[in-house]
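Below is how a single chain appears once it has passed through the pipeline. First comes the sequence as given, then the structure the pipeline wrote out for it. We keep one example in the README because the format questions we get most often are answered faster by looking than by reading.
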Amino acid sequence: MAQKRNGTPGERPTNVARPLIITDILVDHTDDFNRYGRTLNLVELWIAGFPAWPGGKCFVLTHSSSLHWERIGLIELLACIVKREDGTNIGLAHLDIAKMRASKASGLRQKMNTCDPQMALTISLEIGEKPFKTSPEVDSAHATRLYESGMERLHAFHQRDDPSDITEALLILRRAVECTTDSHEHRPVMLLNLGIALNMRSNLTGSLSDLSEAIALQKKAIALTAEAHPFMLTNLGLALRSRFQHTGERSDLDESISMQRRAVDGTPRDDVNLPSMLTNLGVALKGLFKQTGSSSFECRFERTGDLSDISGAISAYQKAVNLSPRGDKELPPRLANVGSSLHRYFERTGDLSHIEEAIEAKRKAAKLIPQGSPDQYAILSNLGNSLRFRFERTGELTDINEAIALQREARDSTPEGHAKYPIMLNNLGLSLRSRFDRTGDLSDISEAIAGQQKAVGVTPRKHPELPTFLNDLGVFLNCRFERTGEVADVSEAISVQRKAVDITAENHADLPSRLTSLGSSLSRRFERTGELPDISEAISVQKRAIELTPTDHASLIVMFQDLGNSYTFSFEQTRNISDINESIKAYKKVVDLTPEGHPNIPSQLANLGSSLSRRSEQTKDISGVSEAISVQQRALKLSPPGYSATPGIHSNLAFSYRRRFSWGKTDADLGEAIFHYQAAATSPSGSPQVKLTAAAAWARLLRLHYPRSTETLHAFDVAIGLTTLIAGLEQTVRGRHAQLQTTSGIALEAAAAACGTDRADMALERLEQGRCLVWNQLNNLRTPLSDLQICNGPLAQVIREVSKQLETAGSSRTQRDISMHISEKVTVEDEAHAHLKLAKRWDDLLMEARAIPGFESFLKPIPCSTLLQNLPESGPVVVINLDGNRCDAIALLAGLNEPVHVHLPNFSIELASKYRADLDRQLMSHHLRVRGEEKGDEGRGIRSAPIGKFGQLGLPVHQVLRGLWEYVVKPVLDALAISQKAKNTHAQVLPRIWWCPTGPLSFLPLHAAGIYSQANDAESALDYVVSSYTPTVTAIVDRVKNCRGIDTKASGLFLTSQPSAPGASSIHGTTREVRAIFTRAKEHAVRVLKLEGDEMSVDRCVESMLDFSSIHLACHGSQNAAEPLQSRFIFHRGSLELGTILKSDLKNADLAFLSACQTSTGDEKISDEAVHLAAGMLAAGYRRVVATMWSIGDRPAQEVATDFYDFIFSRRKGDSGDTFDATLSAHALHHATQQLRQRLDNSEHSLLAWVPFVHFGY
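Resulting structure:
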């Protein structure tokens, strides 16, 4: 039989205890309030012990009087905690449930445990049992009181923008809603305002969950209302649009527009709220101006490209303006909205009237907006956008200058933490980039990049504007790459533009433009690197962009333009005729789509003409090049004054004329080609790189057809001047070297042209100005300013300070890396912008100094006549110039008023290149890559190689040295009448000679040139002269002119050996080498310091270099041709980089003996820039350097070093004290290598052992 249940159906069993409830909680301040003397505001009551909320649940306390707080409503209880407004706990009360149930009392009053012993709080409450009902009876009055309290807190938030207000408002409003049912007459309004409050907090925090709950609540409020009020519809529409901004979900946007249409349609025309509703039909979140001022219509237009949407936005905005009374504070932003919509319409159609109307509307808005209004600067920034667009259409510089001025004001007036700050930065960056395109001012694009990095850095990851900011950053970086050639810029551009594309929805209207930008960057990198995957991807994404774009969209012009560029770049490498045909097809489409009067028509025609010319070159069709010339002439005719593309148009036209001349040989075509190259090179505007290319072509064309024309040298002068411009001080040393890789050889060609007209003096000046540019810049920054100090001390001091800052920026500025955090990239860009300002400041200071009488030539290239006045007395300086057509030696001797010109007709660049290749093969076969450890019986660190018998002919090294002797060195010595052959190895009796080779000769051992294969006929440079090398003539002249003594306190020798550096082969001979030198120095009472292995850190080495005038580094060395300043000496405890040495102020530097491998090996890509450790040590201040041209054996290195110092020590003067004088270092090295040579035979192996030792400097 079934067990009988207690009670009736629907009732709970009588033996189950009902939950206790408490009502009307009151917390009283029961201590002496005046004695306590502190303001107390309790805001929350926390109840612990709920199974559903293990961490407790919060309830809001209402402040009912100065000493009382109350909580109205029903709460099941266990334990209570009260908190003050800053979140700290104030009091705790533990409630004994069993005792309360047993007592059957209807109320409770209990003292609370407080955190402050001086404070007394008492909690009182009513107790009852919760009835078993499916839905509790709710006190309507309580709900109303809660709602009113919540709305008060919401109003307080509006007044104060205090986040705690919105939090408290939400707690109270949520409780009010909980206390009502759907049948409550005020429930829809409560739901609506709770939703509005959640929306507000979402705006504050970016919380998508708050926003989604707000939408759900407002939809429910509308569903509970028989006829939804327009206000309810408008607020739901705004919330839906806000969620669309977060997620990009198209359905939200469509529903938003639908809600706002219903709101407008349901509002009487004379309703004062109608203008706001019309604005809300389009405007984004109230008070937030986007970059474009987009409305909901505009936002959908951005996604779909449907002109009806943007037309609807303009109509709605204009109605709102028309209905706004005079003096309405909302009128300025409504006018701005009209302007923004018209602006977007112009972007879509290209109709100039729309941008004129947009500017007019925005000017009215800017004029009416009160000074200091929150929207003032957004309106100014958007006005700048429209001015920029008009500038890009008309080319009127006043528009872009005004735009930048307005947008800088807007940026500077907006706090960095403000939501609009990134938009201000982006707008300004776009205008700066636009002006850079016109003027080529590098500071504009650098400022744009720095600002855009900040904009990206402060924008949340899911912010709807982030793809735009990323894309524009990529555009700016690509622009700078096109100017500077810095591959890191275009690689980062591709990286950020990929991100922009990846986070853009497939159906977003901006996706095509972002794909186009990515394709442009990829094609530009391909143009530089030749990596075929880049150009394939570029063409692919650009085609996709065109497919996604409506056929009447104005942006198609840019898209076809970029596609044509990509096909052109591809053709340049592949020579595939289909590529150039596709390029012509795209460019013709661009010309057809571009409206008459558009400022870009000249460059578009020029591109078309250039492709036509390229195709004719491929097909040998003379009619094709004539068509190209016709198109390019039209482009030139349409180019306005100061147009940045003018040099390129002239250059392309010159190329076409030159192409037609090569077929028809008409003087008129040749003359036109020369004219247009000259016009391009000397244009006052445009890219320096484009002008340099034109100048080089101009000079070479003249040299080819008019070799003795003075105009030829003028053309080369223009080219050299532009070379110095593109490798300016605003770049890092690495960046300058990268730029110079594309200009190598221009100075050598200019010198050869001058030699061809028997002007050796002019040849020398071109070489001094156009070679070793970075070296010369560094020397200029370190030039003594004693004369200027006397004339204008303050100016000299400023120049001194700026020069130090420039040197530091050039050698140690942080290099950007794609993997860096955005904050690091911002810092790098700030450094780059500061560097640019320093370079401009330097130019201004030079102009100021040159305005002083007597200083007109301050830090200008030194003329030949001045160089001849400060030559060393001990021997000639010989510059050997080598270009594709001739080889010449220019010798300078003290006492002569003009240089000695020696034509070397039997030597050529082809022969030099062959010798270099032969020598490299021998070095490779002998594994001469690192200073080696002694092995086996040979006692040398060089692996053995086949040794020919004495007198054997035909060995490569012998042939190289013999050729250098017969074709270069001996003719020079004969011309200088140096014929006295030394009878012994006493080097001091021989004259000195300084070799200054150029081009491939820089890698060949002129100092060892000679015949070594026959005993009786053996003859070499070592028999006649003591050889040294110098990067430039100016370097030696400066040493002679500014010869200064060394502080005797610093005079001395610092030695270090590093035999077992991590990651390098052991060279234990360095220890013996250094100890032997140390012992000899001590025997001669020379001030000397020796640090071995782990005894020395990098910092200790630098300190010792400051303390001692001369250093001897017996260690491994590493050349870094790509990053010259990272070339280094490798120690046990780290590496000493050249950049670190350059930053040191080595005032007393004298000799650096680099007993390491390959310390004078340069980079063949920039052979005339002396990017090796030896040159770096000279640049750091050392007067003389001993180095090696390739790897050296451990034992030969020891022997040469000890013989070198024995020579110097044995010739010390009696009154030398403990000083060390390296004046005889060149003679000492000559003696030491002769000693080694005599101990060896004349085999290839032996020659490679002693030949690499070289002397640089004075």
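The mean pLDDT is 83.

See the next section for the split statistics.
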